[in-house]
Design brief:
It is a single chain. The chain is α/β, with parallel strands linked by helices. It has one domain: Rossmann fold (3-Layer(aba) Sandwich), CATH 3.40.50. It has six helices and seven strands. A seven-stranded mixed β-sheet has the order 3-2-4-5-1-6-7, sandwiched between helices. Strand 2, helix 2 and strand 3 form a beta-alpha-beta unit. The longest helix has 20 residues. The two termini are 13 Å apart.
Amino acid sequence: MTHPTCGTAFVLGGARSGKSRFAEQLVADSGLERHYVATGRAWDEEMRQRIESHKTDRGPQWTTHEEPLELVARLSIIDRGGRAILVDCLTLWVTNLIMEERDMAAEFAALAAWLPKARARLVIVSNEVGLGIVPENRMARDFRDHAGRLHQMIAAEAADVYFIAAGLPLKMKG
């Protein structure tokens, strides 16, 4: 399968579905210089270990950028032709924005507006959280709703959209 070297690919799936591995392979297959934008924060020791394990697993061929909040600003700085940038993941970014009480609509609109301007090949990963039961508390429902709105905006801008389940990709767009 050939993969484009420009445009945006959006990769959705559940936890441990294989979406990050699939996204990393899209970047590797592009043959471009690899950049990884990590949006997660190490709130506890388990998360710190998880982050370090992911860095080690990716290996030295990746340049890692940790950016929990200012995603568009970071992408603007590292965006260049000849690069592939993997953003992993949008739902962690949404969590960070909620915790910092950011203007979700403005942040989402800024990212969606920036995507068509990118010169690098972008691969964006996110957790699909809207397929389960309705959450029992308001914060969880707000999170699910924010993620769903953001996913629709990113999917509209993306050239390719994949849904990953059990390690198997389903191409939904492109």
